[in-house]
Amino acid sequence: MDNESGRGNQSAWEDDQTNQAVTNDPKNDGEQAGDDDDDARLPLSLSLGQTSNPSPTTTALLRLASPSPVVPPMMPHDFMVCLASPPPYLASSSSIPPPFPWATNKRGTIQSLENLESKQITTITGEVQCRHCEKVYQVSYNLRERFSEVENVFVTRKKGLRERAHPVWTNPEPVRCELCGRDKAVKPVIADRKSQINRLFLLLGQTLGYCTLEQLRNFCKHSKSPRTGAKDRVLYLT
């Protein structure tokens, strides 16, 4: 009897150990299943954020779960401020500070001959440069005398020009340098900025032909003149 009782107790003890092992087994569907259900109820950002090396799919889900920034709507006042302050490239104006005493505050416009003479402006000055000595110096033209020379070309040759610049204007010849004495060496200095070109000085010296086609067209644009055609025609219109 004692042996049978001992074997019964040993069998009961072994059954208890087996039940405890089954309960603690990770593959068990008991309490472990309940833990999985608890993890499934966690917020998406919390459950995914615990991953040390998230996969691309996890990263995409995190981005979808994160809230998007809220952009406040534009108020009517802000819209009016935008209209009142256009970008610089839209705010260009034809009014500029007069670059020369004989110029005006409008692009492509100079004062009339009578207005200049009434202001005692009888000499027009500009810069020239020698291509040999490379020195820059000033040259002055008598306004009335030089203008009469240009006017005489139109009066005597207008019909023959046929709205094309005279060859002397299209290909002006360099003059003698007053500093180094070289012949055919001096050309007028033309500013890089179109609004700063001394056009009256070039007109009186009959050297507008040194301007590029783009510079001539820019002048015709602001003086409301046609600017289509070859260079000799645009030069004539200028």
Protein architecture, described:
- It is a single chain.
- This protein has 238 residues and is mostly helical.
- The protein has a domain at 113-237.
- Helix content is 46%, strand content 8%.
- The protein has helices at 2-24, 31-40, 44-49, 56-65, 76-84, 113-118, 143-161, 167-170, 199-204, 213-222, 231-237, and strands spanning 123-130, 136-142, 186-188.
- Strands 2-1-3 form a 3-stranded antiparallel sheet.
- Strand 1 (123-130) and strand 2 form a beta hairpin.
- Helix 10 packs parallel to helix 11.
- Residues 1-5, 21-40, 42-51 and 76-86 have low confidence and may be disordered.
Low-confidence stretches: 1-5, 21-40, 42-51, 76-86
Radius of gyration, taken over Cα atoms and rounded to an integer in Å: 46 Å
Tally the helices. Answer: 11
* DSSP strand count: 3
Q: Note the beta-strand portion.
A: 5-15%
Kindly report the average pLDDT value. Answer: 76
Morphology: extended
The helix/strand class is mainly alpha
Largest pleated sheet: 3 strands, antiparallel
SSE pattern, N- to C-terminal: HHHHHHEEHHEHHH
Strand order of the largest sheet: 2-1-3
Our measurement of the CA-to-CA distance between the termini, rounded to an integer number of angstroms, reads: 135 Å
Q: Assign a percent range to the helix content.
A: 40-55%
Protein name: DUF7086 domain-containing protein
